């Protein structure tokens, strides 16, 4: 599309949207959500393998310029070409970068929270402190400052425990400099295992949080907020994850708003206490046997299972574009409960681990039936209520592109 054509679209039609990060199902879901409603969508990808580059709903796709300065120059030039546009960013690292340079993005209406709000939810200690004030349940958590703190706490904990970094982005930088790996989550099953694992961080002087294990499954509650009001609500439960003990959602199911209403009110109270603007996911571990929930984190960006919400009818990218980009609030959409969505490549990796490496699952409390897992994997292909993160009949090429590049990498 030429600059003149782009200016005409902006003047006479929908405001264009720019999506920084169309390499994942998240970015692809945003492209599809906006493009099928006639919004001109410009996508920026890190790699030629990005599935979003093949979407029929993409107006123009381009590869990302090298380095942070190059990316900022690229966005600035694109903003000058398009005029007013809405800018979506997918990763927390990109959001942090763009928040540092908001003065260079004056051509854009920014579809992500500012630095103050993002910093609060990225720091789990701050999140848990706000949650306690809002009456949101949190698991018992210890943040050792020294090995002596860890040695003192270790005998008092209920095992297993899960280790997480309070500020994973900052911790990752420090650990890489020291030649250490950052584990997003780490399970320890007794005090000896815990202390042996923590000793490697003594030279760095930083330690992960120690969190008591919470039984159950992942429950996500999703919101679009503006001026303290909620404009869209949605929730789902995680059925499968990769790795199996917790990580990326590979199979999830939409849950009616009739369920977990009291917990959802506490989630809203927490977001209001943070003066939240835009989209957010409040994630819990929910134990159905005890009817108890414990807060895991607040995700202040578009989440990995966004395709499920869009398939079910809670079309958050379009709703955010309308509300925050054009100032036109849409009514709370009804959505379909009981709809499932699969992320096929990690879902297949999960099945392979359970079939051939069950001993590699870090959470020893989890038990699986190999025959049952295989039957369920096959049965979901035939289930009418199953949808997919990447594949849709109306826009199939992104899935085929992704599959082709996966085959090339493994060949």
UniProtKB/TrEMBL annotation:
The keyword Lyase does not apply. Residues 128-325 form the ATP-grasp domain. InterPro entries: ATP-grasp, ATP_grasp_subdomain_1. GO terms for molecular function: ATP binding; ligase activity; metal ion binding. Signal peptide: none annotated. Keywords: ATP-binding, Ligase, Nucleotide-binding. It comes from the Bacteria. Pfam families: ATPgrasp_Ter. SUPFAM superfamilies: Glutathione synthetase ATP-binding domain-like (SSF56059). This is Carboxylate--amine ligase. It comes from Pseudoduganella dura.
